[in-house]
Design goal:
Order of helices and strands: HHHHHHHHHHHHH
Distance between the termini: 63 Å
Largest sheet: none
Strand content: under 5%
Shape: globular
Length: 261
């Protein structure tokens, strides 16, 4: 048994060394293939061979990158977490993923409350602060809450907005309820503007990040809000996939008919 344990430790250490060696190159390659995939999707049909090839390349590199991330999550040390946070602070590409991985490493080591992710709460970049706050709030109760609420006072179509909403949405809280109402209110106004363009024959689409944030915010209103707030939640447009999330917050899914039919 001791020999097997030693062998496993040796294998894990070898994997950690390789992950550290290759992650920089994999990140660069992943940036390149995802950018190529984005470009070809803009100019070709989804079934075109160039799109399918680019998608396969992106998925292949993503899988390799995920192996490296998983290795760091299992065996990474405090210095790895510090390096990941430094990457997040320097570059928005994979910013949230780097911070999330660093948070899991520090959580496993028992240093999250005083580690690099906690220090990122005071970063000069708002997106870094919000992403770090969402992780701290989820993993260390209440930590980062004020940063998230402050961000949602002026919700916008930005990557941080749905992340902040999702992080705050796991428990009833009057301040959070007010923030969620604001997100839904902003999206409802944006929906009216977009629908007016569509009615006039002008192509337009809902801002996807604000839309996703509003969907989660509306779920929060349905779960914890008063009747007026629940009615306001119906101003959010839902895709079919969103209803799977909606039915999890009520005891009887038929109650959705009160709001949507």
């Amino acid at each position: 048994a001791h020999r097997r344990l030693t062998a496993n430790e040796s294998t894990l250490n070898d994997a950690l060394v390789k992950a550290r060696q290759h992650l920089t190159a994999l990140r660069a390659e992943y940036r390149g293939v995802t950018e190529r995939y984005r470009r070809v999707r803009e100019t070709a049909k989804p079934t075109d061979s160039t799109v399918l090839d680019a998608k396969r390349d992106a998925e292949r590199v993503e899988a390799l990158l995920q192996v490296g991330f998983n290795t760091l999550a299992i065996a990474g040390q405090a210095k790895d977490a510090q390096d990941l946070v430094a990457l997040a602070q320097a570059d928005e590409f994979l910013r949230y993923q780097h911070l999330e991985l660093a948070a899991h490493i520090e959580k496993r080591l028992g240093i999250l409350s005083k580690g690099a992710v906690n220090a990122a709460l005071s970063d000069k970049q708002e997106s870094t602060r919000v992403f770090a706050a969402s992780l701290m709030y989820r993993l260390v109760l209440q930590a980062g809450k004020e940063i998230l609420l402050d961000h949602l006072r002026l919700p916008a179509d930005r990557p941080e907005t749905p992340v902040a909403v999702y992080a705050l949405g796991d428990r009833p809280d009057p301040a959070v309820l007010q923030a969620m109402s604001k997100v839904v209110e902003v999206f409802a106004k944006e929906r009216q503007r977009i629908d007016a363009f569509k009615s006039a024959g002008t192509p337009a689409s809902y801002p996807i990040k604000l839309w996703n944030a509003a969907v989660h915010a509306s779920i929060y209103l349905i779960a914890y809000g008063d009747e007026q707030q629940k009615r306001a939640a119906t101003q959010v447009v839902y895709k079919a996939s969103h209803f799977k999330e909606l039915v999890t917050v009520i005891e009887d899914p038929r109650n959705l008919a009160d709001y949507f039919l």
